Model the fold of this input.
Amino acid sequence: MPPEQTLDPDDWDAFRAAAHDMLDAAITQIQTAKDGRVWSPLPDDQKAAFQAPLPATGTNVDDQLKALMPYGVGNTHPRFFGWVHGSGTPSNMIADIAASAMNANLGGRDHGAIYVEQQVVAWCRDIFGFPEDSSGLVVSGTSIATLIALKAARDRLSDYAGRETGPASGLVGYTSTQTHSCVARTFDILGLGSNALRRIPVNADFEMDCTALRAAIAADRAAGFTPFTIIGTAGSVNVGAVDDLNTLADIAAEEDLWLHVDGAFGAPAVLSDTQRPRLAGIERVDSLAFDFHKWLHVTYDAGMVMIRSEDVHRRTFSERPDYLKGTDRGLAAGGAWPTEFGPELSRGFRALKVWSQLATHGTEKLGQLITQNCNQASYLADLVDAAPDLERLAPVKMQICCFRFAPGGVSEERMDALTDEIVIQLQIQGIAAPSTTLVNGTNAIRVNITNHRTRTSDLDVLVQAIQDIGHTLNEGT
Ligand SMILES: *Cc1c(COP(=O)(O)O)cnc(C)c1O
Done:
């Protein structure tokens, strides 16, 4: 027999020293995240190093890891304003180390990690005012949370027979034109087809037009379709709009429809004193999807699905084959297993970093930081409104400000091109990283502030750079 091997280190003291060294490098990385460029593309030599042949024998990779660390997307920098990214916390690094050491599988069974996830679910019930018999599951993000929630909506309709026979034909659902693309993708994955998702127009504040919604439901019923769900948005990606959740809940009750809300970044704004009133009605929904990795700054990835009825949730996914049989004592004990509430069996310990974030920083401070970002977006809106060469393109209700460089005497087409080029220049020059979107068909610089490191001075830098780059580009033509 050859000598027996293991993947553990031969020299634990050397491993310990190397690990401490890596922790120091990681802390330095995050401590200095606010200095220097926002985003830098990965240098060519590093790209080449990541195209190396598959190694048959191992080597120490610590130097390669350290060299990689500065080349993130930039979301740890205070002037990262693109899409909707959270900025992370140093404290979450510690939770990740503990989770990695435990290497827990949260598919089920009776062990410490399961109790941590149950605590996270209970805390989320408190945060959103959900009932005691509601359930939740920590997932990778809002996309998968939406899938889990709408599968529950679909399966409840057939009293779960559809789990075996497939979905009935003619099922339709409703959302606004501002909805995130993950909703249509969910309709596709659930076998309903993305055409079964009706897109209801919005009002001037980009909120779903509830009169149009009622009319669409009536028209579909008259045409023989079966409406089954309304998907509201609490924080739209384009401009941060929040649908009128109480009215949506009223309509859902009258029409006997499942109300789901996509609150990917917006739902946690219930922790903000200034934003909470806008989310009134969120406690009435049948299901809610949101992210911890956006406005609660948990390290990627971590999101959540909450379902009002644990019974519905479990019946949507539960099946316990012989080899996963529960017991009343021993390791296989412990009530319902998480695998009965979602599509995955093996599940990592995301719940630990979520629990740690809430426990370490507390809901008050997390809420204050959300308020701070909203105030910063208002500050930016004021800067834009005061500048003769900038034009705001949407109301600022939350943390998103959409505007453009509009020096006057320039065609719409030219301004659209300038918008794209200004944003690319800001990114390439490492000054800031906003993204772009279309607002009522107009190309906009979109600044999203879900960043606890941002200071108002960063917004001054951003606006000055947009004006400088804009005029340089414009005069260069
Ligand atoms: C980010 C986002 C999603 C998708 O969430 P993931 O966590 O990326 O899967 C859905 N809806 C909205 C409004 C979002 O901002």
Q: What stands out?
A: The chain has a mean pLDDT of 96.
